[in-house]
Fold this protein.
Amino acid sequence: MDLSERIVAGEPRALARAISYVEDERDGFEDLLDHLDDRIGRARRIGITGPPGAGKSTLTAALTRHYLQQSLTVGIIAVDPTSPFTGGALLGDRIRMNELASEEGVFIRSMASRGSLGGLSTTTREASDLMDAAGYDRIVIETLGVGQSELDIASSADTTAVVLVPESGDGVQAMKAGLMEVADLFVVNKADRPGADRLEKELAIIMSVRADTTAPASKDGWRIPILQTIGLEESGIEELANGLDNHFNWLNESGLLEPRRAECRLRRAHDALLRRTKRDAEKVWRTAPSIEESIEESPYSIAQRLYDKWKGGDRS
Amino acid sequence: MDLSERIVAGEPRALARAISYVEDERDGFEDLLDHLDDRIGRARRIGITGPPGAGKSTLTAALTRHYLQQSLTVGIIAVDPTSPFTGGALLGDRIRMNELASEEGVFIRSMASRGSLGGLSTTTREASDLMDAAGYDRIVIETLGVGQSELDIASSADTTAVVLVPESGDGVQAMKAGLMEVADLFVVNKADRPGADRLEKELAIIMSVRADTTAPASKDGWRIPILQTIGLEESGIEELANGLDNHFNWLNESGLLEPRRAECRLRRAHDALLRRTKRDAEKVWRTAPSIEESIEESPYSIAQRLYDKWKGGDRS
């Protein structure tokens, strides 16, 4: 069997290797993605985002266990540098994650594609595609909810849950950080701590205020729910899973799912085109002067010279 | 006088317009930067970064007033979405900023270059170059210290101060967020609050631990100082300014400043080359199919087709 057949057959090692190919932009990785294109679209993609320390990984783990109990398989992509999935975490957290990783029906991958030509959001989307093709029912993408590129990743999911905790500041801060724009669902995690009810009320007020303005408190008519969870005690997880399902079902029934996904597909074509031209540019860059040689020439003159060289036909 | 002459003459409106040209990638903006190239290199560039709510803007403002008292002019670039400079702030903060903006010798610019081809870090660097050419003595770049691209911006300065507060979590969290890598200087702000001394001690411990490993606690032999400030009371600001100067002087005297800046210049050439090829790719993308037309074709097939078209010579 070739790699794509092994992925479709659900072989975890084939999937892991394919994701590495995508991350490394190994020769033929786009052919592989192209080949699997008609296998993509079955999984539901869920973004989990929020500030550091909001308990995103604990929630992701709890949600994953919930799905497993329902006989659903789960692929997890962690792009959060503070996540135990990616290594930046306390020992206890990491032990729990390792336990999860050994469960049947769970596939965990952490992404760190600094230096990848396509950028982290493109690579993450393609890794999700591969998990989708491999037959995982739910794909959970955990990202830190600060920084535009991180938010872009979270919002490329079908449904995005924004996780906040009483300690992470008030709702106004979440709004400022751009979290409001990506939320299909709010989760007030660590809801047993002081301030949880107050945070929930603040979020509700902010959203009702925004409903009166041009900005949508609901997206296309979807009323954004606010849920309370205690991730460590797995409390509120069923409600969270239901909330995620509700949003997905609403997307589907309102006829918004297909156009949204079609838009996302076209976006992939755009990103793939840009990645290719970038690869060409990086190839020309290899002929750039050294730091010492470059002192006398202005940066824009160097760029112009290399651009002309590339445009002149050296595009092997 | 043409625009570049007016910039060099220190006309704020000319500078503001030039930065807009760069942000919009208006025709000829690279010629302008090229033209000003030999005017660049006099200013000291200071990055101020840290988590949301650390008081970066208040410190930036206090530092700016300190410089003004020393008859130094200051250009401020705010790329932090939670900064009052960029609008996402409490009313009181914003009033203070507006006062600062009206001072002689201060130039404030907020950057929000979503969608710019060069990316936020490139545009920020070029805006700094323009401020440098305009004769500002200090250029303070305030960015949110979460997310890789934000950290890239902060670390493109000559000297980067990482601002933490007792509430923003412990030193371990800062380390995980990548803040340790960019810090030339740590600032424990809001030092009158409980936990400030503990945070300072934690940072000191973490850095001493790292000194024993391969990771540098000091960068190239620079011992990273930890300072305490109370931004709102302007306490510790002189020490901060001295700390920043000490680092710059150390860079200069150790012979590291010039090679670092030369590397940064060459990086600009690289970024300019990539921006140009990206512009070409975006031009070809305008001939992409609509979402409806694209349904039947795989994203990679669309990308291939457009790439071939572009490679085939349609590079007008």
